[in-house]
Amino acid sequence: MPQRQLQRYVRLYGTRSERLLADARSMAALGPCFGYDLYQLEVDFLVRDEWASTADDILWRRTKLGLRLSAQERREHDEYLQGIRKESDAAVLNQWIVLT
């Protein structure tokens, strides 16, 4: 993994970087890249552990990578998050149906 990326993780997440990277032993384990050095693994971590819910929250408030991504890359990132929300909403609905 590039040194710049590791430094960014440590700067942003401190000791939680270990949890972020968990079992990731290769760049392929980080998942698709949304641009610059924002990978699916980091986005999933932010959604799961920091309750980030919008592309703006991740790109502008938490990582500041909105400054580095193109408009197309920001759109692709937003579409990915919308897909996560749909899956999450469906899972919650299914769980509710099972419980009732």
UniProtKB/TrEMBL annotation:
It comes from the Bacteria. Pfam families: DAO_C. Residues 2-68 form the Alpha-glycerophosphate oxidase C-terminal domain. Gene3D superfamilies: 6.10.250.1890, Alpha-glycerophosphate oxidase, cap domain. InterPro entries: DAO_C (IPR031656), DAO_C_sf (IPR038299). This is Alpha-glycerophosphate oxidase C-terminal domain-containing protein. It comes from Bradyrhizobium elkanii.
